[in-house]
Amino acid sequence: MVSDIVGxxxxxxxxxxxxxxxxELKPLEPELKVLIRPIDRFGHLSVTVHITPEHLTQSHxxxxxxxxxxxxxxxxxxRKIVRAYPLRGDVSRRGPSR
Length: 98
Prior knowledge:
Elements: H1 2-16, E1 23-25, E2 32-38, E3 44-51, E4 60-67, H2 71-84
Antiparallel strand pairs: 1-2, 2-3, 3-4
Helix pairs in contact: 1-2
C-alpha cells in the first residue's frame, strides 16, 4: 500500500538522522519484508529482504550491505512512487506513517 511506502521513507529518514534504530517495510501482506539496520558505528548498514510468492510454503531471503549514503536515495525513490500514486480517501484511518 502507498501508506506503507510513505512510512518506510519516513523511517529511512529517521534512521539516517539517528532518530530510529532501524527502518522496516513490513506491509500487511506477508509476501514482502525489508529491514535496514546499522551493523557498526561507521555508517554501514545491513539490508535483509524476505520475499515469497507463497508465504505458506516458501521462504526466500537475502542480505547485503550498504552505507548510510544510500538512505536519502531510498527514501527519495519511495516518495517518487507516492507522488505517482498518491494516497486517496481518508488517510486519518490508516494510522501514523512513522
